[in-house]
Amino acid sequence: MLTRIAPSILSADFARLADAIAQVESVADLLHLDVMDGQFVPNITIGPFIVEAVRKVTTLPLDVHMMIVEPDRYLSDFRRAGADMMSVHVEACPHLERTIDQIHQLGALAGVAINPATPVEVLTDIIGEVDYVLVMSVNPGFGGQAFWPRAIDKIGRVKTLRGAKDRPLIEVDGGINQQTGAQVRAAGADILVAGSFVFGSEDPTARIKILRGNEEP
């Protein structure tokens, strides 16, 4: 399966967001949008209005990563704004199965994100219900952090947990660049989220190709 690349707009120039998206649209597979509330993580970022604005300028699927408490309250808002995929943190959802079911009822793909300190085994009873697992390779809340090497092991443990199936997909987010991207691809990641490595470059298209392993820098 071809590795999918999801540029994270958190690292894009928000003053020229439409232009930044246009730069990657022809080569990216989806766009990653980080939603932070200043409570679950120590930062505040985008809400449904930004998702709606992004939806108007791209046909790419929108992968909304909800780093917020009580995500159930906002799922409908983000779905109406244009989210195609929504991931919630297992650490923020006391009734995770109900949250996943709500995302599916809204017609979106449902993902579960796990922080670096959260063991993969918490997914045992939900793994068959989700469309993708988002393995955080940094502590969530800020872009530009260094990759957490133990995420490689966690990718393998998610693969073991899902068994012979090719679902849920495995997404990795945090510190992804040419070197770490190659490592997580080799470990079995299906989706690579990259922010500063892509949007911090003068040639984001080339960087996406590098992450796929198609091209040298």
From TrEMBL:
Please provide the Gene Ontology terms (biological process) for this protein.
pentose catabolic process; pentose-phosphate shunt
Under catalytic activity, the entry for this protein gives:
D-ribulose 5-phosphate = D-xylulose 5-phosphate
Q: Name one GO molecular function term.
A: metal ion binding
Q: Which InterPro entries match?
A: Aldolase_TIM, Ribul_P_3_epim, Ribul_P_3_epim-like, RibuloseP-bd_barrel
Q: Where are the transmembrane segments?
A: none
Q: Which CDD domains match?
A: RPE
Query: What keywords sit in the KW lines?
Result: Carbohydrate metabolism, Cobalt, Isomerase, Manganese, Metal-binding, Zinc
The record's Pfam families line, in alphabetical order, gives: Ribul_P_3_epim (PF00834)
List positions binding substrate. Answer: 8, 65, 141-144, 173-175, 195-196
E.C. number: 5.1.3.1
Enumerate the active-site residues. Answer: 34, 173
CC cofactor: Mn(2+); Fe(2+); a divalent metal cation; Zn(2+)
**Bound cofactor: record note:** Binds 1 divalent metal cation per subunit.
Pathway assignment reads: Carbohydrate degradation
Q: Does the keyword Manganese apply?
A: yes
Which residues does a divalent metal cation bind?
32, 34, 65, 173
Function field:
Catalyzes the reversible epimerization of D-ribulose 5-phosphate to D-xylulose 5-phosphate.
The name of this protein is: Ribulose-phosphate 3-epimerase
Q: Which gene encodes it?
A: rpe
